[in-house]
Specification:
InterPro entries: Fe-S_Maturation_MIP18, FSCA_dom_sf, MIP18-like. This is Metal-sulfur cluster assembly factor. The protein is an alpha+beta fold. It has five helices and three strands. The protein has one domain: Fe-S cluster assembly (FSCA) (GMP Synthetase, Chain A, domain 3, 2-Layer Sandwich).
Length: 128
């Protein structure tokens, strides 16, 4: 008995696919980072930091490190560590690293809350 190997038509007829560069599929955008930050909940208000208007800007460099410009509702907020930990968890696997720049200018105000954030606050009983 001889051992022969036959090619199936799909193996021989298909043209090889050009691989897509890993960077095009894997490189996160600032919008991807912002979307992931919606999982970061302000511990005092129970609303995500994006809809509260606390995220002022996001950049992602060529090494997939995110830099997030963020503020708090009050400069005296004692919960920055909690927010930093939540941000790190929400971005894990998306970016190679992250840094939060705490910024205080312009100061945060209720006008920075998104429409979705206002709806969420109203559902919690806030008058916004």
């Amino acid at each position: 008995m001889t051992d022969t190997q036959t090619e199936t038509p799909s193996e021989s007829a298909e043209t090889p696919q050009t691989p897509t560069p890993a960077t095009s599929a894997a490189a996160p955008t600032a919008a991807d980072v912002e979307e992931a930050l919606r999982d970061v909940i302000d511990p005092e208000l129970g609303i995500n930091v994006v809809d509260l208007g606390l995220v002022y800007g996001v950049t992602v460099d060529q090494n997939n490190h995110a830099v997030i410009d963020m503020t708090l509702t009050s400069a005296a907020c004692p919960l920055t560590d909690v927010i930093e930990d939540q941000a790190a968890q929400s971005l894990e696997g998306l970016v190679a690293g992250q840094r939060i720049n705490w910024v205080w200018m312009p100061p945060w105000g209720p006008e920075k809350i998104t429409d979705d954030g206002r709806e969420q606050l109203r559902a919690l009983g806030f008058n916004v």
